[in-house]
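QA checklist item 7 of 12: single-chain prediction sanity check.
[x] sequence parsed
[x] length recorded as 251
[x] structure emitted
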Amino acid sequence: MLRDRIRNEDYFNEAIKFTDNYIGEEIEYLDITDPLKPLAAMKTSAGLCQLTVERLEFSYSRGDRIEKFKQDILNFLHFREKQLNYAELLPKENAKNKVEWERLSFSTYKRTLVLLAFAVAAGASKEYFSKLFYLVDNQGLDALFDRIAVKLGDSDRPVSEKVLHAKPYGLLLNVIDAAPSEQAALMNKFMDAWYPACAKNGFYETHNITNNFGYGGYWCFEAALVTMVFKLEDSGYKNHKYYPAALVHGD
């Protein structure tokens, strides 16, 4: 059953079809790319990671069941491994590009948390998370990301004391640290702040885009991730318009 409140099922069907075709073209490009051109191959692999997360978002908004997400989750890991492999082949003059594609910029940070939410919901294995955190790296740089990683098995990971993107993710860290009686109010506060905080990062008013499939739904998968990982009681915020409750409850 359709979960999105703005676009219809036909839109998401077309969005997924377009994304599948695009992914197929990019995979074909990787297969024929000269191995001596690692920069292009690395960027293509990073793009495939992004497309895979977008496909997951489209699928959730369309109403797909949780078990259908498993292949995309595995595909992301495969593409992320390719991204790292090509990055390690970069010549010295392109070394700075590796940092550009691997650092936790706002969009990369958000995308990784979204992927983690789907992986947790789909029951990914401990081995999966171990490999994912190895590939993503960035240990000890962000308190929220580090603490989620520790809960998912990366127990030897150093944990930062700061949040890289404090607006709005500092509020989400507050939820984790709060007493259970305060967590629902703080999670609602975080989700209220989440969408406006995305405005300067391109994830805003995307439902008004008409010339491509830029809209995947306004879902705060990060809230779902923290809820699942830290086993929070979500009855006090499950009806928030940005909360993807079905991902948490398997509806």
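[x] summary fact logged: The chain is about 60% helix and 0% strand.
[ ] second reviewer sign-off
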